[in-house]
Amino acid sequence: MTRTYDLLVVGGGINGAGIARDAAGRGLSVLLVEQRDLASATSSSSTKLIHGGLRYLEHYEFRLVREALQEREVLLSAAPHIIWPLTFVLPHHKGLRPKWMLRAGLFLYDHLARRKRLPGSRSVSLNGTPEGDPLKATFSSGFSYSDCWVDDARLVVLNAQDAQAHGAEIRTRTQCKSLVRHADHWNAQLSQDDGSTHVVRARSVVNAAGPWVTEMVQNAGLGDKAAGLRLVKGSHIIVPRIHDHDHCYIFQNGDGRIAFAIPYQREYTLIGTTDIPYDGDPAKVKISSDEIDYLLELVNGYLAKPVTRDEIVWDYAGVRPLYDDKNANASAVTRDYVFDLDTGDTENAPAILSIYGGKITTYRRLAEHAMQKLGPVLGNTAPDWTASAILPGGDMEDGDFDRFLATAKARLDWVPDALLHRLARCYGTALYKIIGDASEISQLGQEVAPNLYECELLYLIANEWATTTDDVLWRRTKLGLGMQSDQVDAVTHWFATQARLGQAAQ
Predict the structure, then answer these.
(1) pLDDT tens digits for range 288-331
(2) In the beta sheet, which residues pair with residue 268?
(3) Which helix (H) or strand (E) holds 85?
(4) Whole-number Å distance between alpha carbons of 68 and 77
(5) Is 491 helix (H, G, I), strand (E, B) or coil?
(6) Comparing C-alpha atoms, which of 465, 472, 432 is closest to residue 451?
(7) Among 191, 202, 258, which Cα is nearest to 54's?
(8) What per-residue confidence (pLDDT) applies to 329?
(9) Would you tell me which CATH number, out of the four given (3.30.9.10, 3.50.50.60, 3.30.70.20, 3.30.360.10), belongs to the domain 83-150+230-325?
């Protein structure tokens, strides 16, 4: 018998996972399908910031910036293990935006939304300070302000976990091949990696397919109604740590853009991003040589010791699926989200809501707004609920990560500090599920790769939909950075062994 869901969500990025969570929490039956892994495209390729978007003020995107600024505090409280405050240093470049303009922009940034935990902006002297040490001597003053860091891929997983905890079904490696509209439901043909197909029914559909959103509109037979989609590539490079302090830099460029240099995984600095129009396959996006040159030239205009190509240890690129507002400048295309709700031509026809654009910072509000639109269509009157809800692993006293970590160290004094800190940052209070009843390091199972024990891998398979080496090393954790090829191969071999054991048990 074909099951009927209230809501089928197509796309396992941050928007899809956030909507699945919100909808399930309102009592709706929800199925989320993702053709690859959760956060395998745009949502794991961001600059990894929860921020208002200071430069969006220049494009008069005041509503978007205000909403994003409001969300910083909400998300800090919801997931203090994967989101934390970050101080940004903005050196004043005498040839670019004048100080009065920067000061005015930061004043707006401070006052567009109420702040509880994040300090406001201030002027800073860079001479003889840790913040000024990595910079050329010509940069003697600037400003500092606050935003937040986020582990983007983990944020997606936590939303999917919470959706499942509220009753949603999450199916990865499952592609929605077609949607057929009937009088009061959609028929969705789903195809899995093993080639098997089956059909489910849904009273409404959310098309959160990101760069593939237009393709899904066409699959639903509504190609002539598709809104405009603008694909913009953003690329990043990672180099060994360029400074000793824990602040982030925001560097202006002569073309009006900015780039960030962000402390990353303790030993590295993340540099990005670019804004390049893109028209290729979103699944095959890669950084170009020109983009690498652009980022190096931009940051080296500020750094006393230049960064070279040889120092790049990793790079990544993602495609932003933006609403096409017809702006000729890819950097100025709106980052705001746009909904396209199609309710059909007949009474009681099933709806499809397609999502264009959006920022990881505002995903929760996007999901809330999506359900405010779909609630009346589905006859659901449940109230908004996610603004005060904690994400999995974030249930630590007063949202105080440092206190939680200190308690964990006292309780698990046999766990090496580096391992415990990483587990706490990745999983929060769920680290106790990973450790289980172990009381010594040997009871964590095989150390499959440095700092990666079998107990964690088994947890990721059972609780986070991980099935491959890349799922673990580049999305659930960032342990792929710094690993040698033989260490990566060891993880791949472990997964292959688990697959054989699973087949033998069937």
Answers:
(1) 999 999 999 999 999 999 999 999 999 999 999 998 876 666 66
(2) 240, 264
(3) strand 83-91
(4) 15
(5) helix
(6) 472
(7) 258
(8) 66
(9) 3.30.9.10
